[in-house]
Amino acid sequence: MKVSFTHIALSCIVSLMCSLSLGAKEFEEGLDAFIAKDYKISSEMFLNVIGNEPNNSSAYYNLGVVQMQQAKFGEAIWAFENVLKLSPNDSQVKEKIEQCYSELNRPDYWKPHLNSLKSGLYSWSSNVWSILAIAFSLVLFASIVVFRMCKAIPLKRLMIVSGIIGVCCMLTSITLAKKVKQYSEGTHYAMVIRKSIPTFIEKEKKAKTVLNEGTQLSISQPDSTEYMVVTANSGQEHLVRFEDLAFF
Amino acid sequence: MVQKIVAILSTLFVLNALGQNAEVILSVDPLSVEVGEAFTLSVKSSVQGEVEIDNLPSSFVYGYDVMNGMEQEMDYNTGNVITYYFLSQTGAISKSGKFTIGPAYIKKGSKTYKSNKITISVGNKTPMSSGDVTKQQLNDPAFGIIQTKKSNIYEGEPVLVTAKVYSKFEPTHLDGYLQYELKGSIDKHAILNSNRIIVEMEQFRNIEYYAFEYDKNLIFPTGTGKFKIQPFSMNLHKGYKSFPIKSSHAIIDIQPLPANPPNDFIGAVGNFDVHRSIDGENLKQGDVLKMKVVVSGVGNLQNSLEPKHKLPKGLVIYGDAKITETISYGSRGAEGEIEYEYNIQVSKTGDVLFPPTSISYFDLSLEKYVSITTAVDTIYVAPDKNFVVSDERNSNDNELLELTETPKLRSSIVKNMSSSIYGTPLFWIGVSSPVLTALIILLFIKRREKSVQEISAKKEMKRKEKELNSGLFNLKILVLESNKNEFYTGIETTLKRAFEVFMKIGEDKVLDKQQIYSYLNDTGKKELSDRVRALFSKCDQYRFGLPATSESRTKLLDELSSIINKLKK
What ipTM describes this predicted complex? Predict the structure, then answer.
C-alpha cells in the first residue's frame, strides 16, 4: 500500500513536470513561429500553452499580438482582456486594445472594466490580500494583548488606535481578497470576436440588430446554456447565442 | 538732426498705418439650414464703422437677436494686440435653395472695406415625427410632445429632438422646465434657440392649437437598439394661472451599420468629402513639407477618425497631426471641416509620388459605405549634397518599421495564481485564531481577577464569622461585669456583624443601622426589623438613661441570640 502511494505521488510530480516542460517548449515554438512569420502555427502554440497554463499572461499577450498581425482584432482584444484579468494594471495591454479598437473602426471607444482605483487594488492577487488579512489579524491580537497587559495610559491609547486600524484593515483585506477572487475566477464578460453576430427577440427568432466585432458585453443571465442575455456598454440588453461569444 | 528723426518716424508711422490691412470677415452659423430655421450672420472686422451686408436674399427674415461688441486678440507673430469689432444678427430664410450672401461693407469716413462672400444652403423643411399622444392629453388644456426628425436612424447618425407644446389657450410664459432625457452616453448640442418663444397657430388632429417649439437639440446617440427618450415637463402660464404639462415619451430605433466596413472607414455617417494639398515648392532633399488633408461634410463629423496614410519610403511623418476643427451644429447634423496638417520630411530625390488619401463613410441616402479618394500628388525634390542619409537614421527607420511590422512578444512569465487561499479553512483559521486567542486571553485574565476577588471576599467572611462568635462569647462574660458601655457597644457591634455575615458582605466594611433597616424592609422582614430597632433603642436607653439590671442585660443578650438564630435560619 505504501509503495502504491509513493508511485502515485511520483507519477503526479513527473506528469506535472512534463506538462510544464511541454508548455515551455510550445511557448518557445510559438515565439519561433512568430519570428518566422508563421502566425497560424504561432497562435496554435500559444493557445496550447493557455490550455495547459490558463494563468500564463504572457501567452495571452503573445496570442493577442499574433492575432493582431493576422488582422483578427476581435480575437486579439479577447486575448488582451484575459491579460488584463490577470494583471489589471498592464498599460501596454490597454494601449494594444485601444489600437485594436481603432483598427476595427468602431464608432465607440474601449472602456476598461475596472476603474484606475480598482485596477490598482486588483493588481494584487487574492492570496496577497488573504495574507494581509492574516497579518492585520495578528496586529489586532498584539494590540489587544498589549492593551490588557500594560498599565500606562498613553500606551493603552496607542493600542486602541492600532486595534481599530487593525480591524479596519483586516476587514478591508478580507473584502478585497473575496472580490479579487470573484473577479479573477469568475466569468463576467463576453465579447464578439466574429465580424458580426445576430441577436434574437426570442429563441430562433432573429432581431434586426447585429453586434459587430469587438463589442464588449457583460453577462446578465449566466445560467442559460444555449441563449443568454447580455448587456452592451450602451446599457442595451440583447439575447444572443452562447456559442457566438468569447468569454473572459 | 531732430527734424530728420521726426520725419523718418512719421514716414514709418504712415507706412505702418497704410500697410495694416483692415480685415472684414463675414460668416454664417450653421452653413446649412432648413426653411425657417434660425441662423446667425456675423461680421467681424478690425475696423469700426457702419456695417452693410449686401445680397441678403429677399426671403431673409430678420430675427430679434442682434448683438454687437468688441474683443481683443493677440497676434503671436508680432506681439500686437488687435481689436476686433463684431456684429451678429439672427434670421431665417423662408425659401429653399443656395443663397450667396455678401460681401459685407464697413464704411469708415471716406473709406469702405469689403468682406468675403458666403453661401448658405437652405433645404426644405422635413416634418418631425411626434411621440404618442394619449386621449387624456388631448383633453387637457395643454400638452407636450417630444418630436424627433427621424424615429429610425443608423448608429452614429444625428437626430434632431425638440419639445413641442400645444395649448388651447394663448400662453404668456413658462417655468419649471425639466428637460427630456435619453439614457446612456450621448453627444448633445443645442441648436440655435432664440430667447423669444414664437407661438403660432397650428392644427393638430384637426383642432387649432397655439403651438411652440422649445429646447431643440441635436443628439448623437451611441449603441444600437431601441432608445427611449424620457418625457419633459413644464408649467405653462396664462397670466397668473398655471397649467402643469408632462409630455409622453418618444422612441428612437437605432440600427447598426452594415458589417464589414472598408479598412479606411473613419466612423463617419452622413455625407463627406476629402481634399488634400501639399505645400511642396522648391523642395530640397531633407526639407520638411506640409501636407493638409481636409475632411468636410455633414453628419457626425465631430466623431470621425483621422484618415490613415500609407506613405512610401523616404517620406516620414513627424509628430501628430495639427488638427483644426471648424464645425457648426444645425438641423442636418455637424457640418464643417476638420483639417489635419502633417509635417513630412523628404529624404528621396527626384519626382516623389504621394499615393492618394482615401476615406470611407456611411452614406445615409445610399445606405451603404462610400469610399472617396484624393488625387495622386507628385512633387519634385532637388538633391542636396549636404544632406546625408546617415546609416544611423536608416537603421532607426528600419527599427521603427520592424517595430510596426513585428511587435515584440513577451517571454514566458507565468502569473502564479494557484488557487486562492481565500475562503479555505487555512485562511479562516489564520484570520480568526489570533483574534480568538486574544479574546480567550482577555477572558482568562478577567476570570483570574474575579477569582482573586472571590477568595479575598471569602476570607473576609470567615473573619467576620469568627468575630461574631467571639463577640457573642465576650458578651456572655460582660453581662455579669459592671462595664455597661462596653456591653451595649458589644451588642450593637455583634448585631451589625451578624447582618454583615448574613448579607454576605465580603468587604472590610461596617454596616450602619439605616442600612440594616432598609435591608430588612426591602426583604419584607417587618417583624425582625421592629425587633432590631427595639434592641438598638434599648441599648441606647440603658446606656444614656436609667441603668439596667443584670436581668435586663441578660434579656438583651437573649434577644440578640434569638435574632441571630432567626437570621441563620
Answer: 0.75
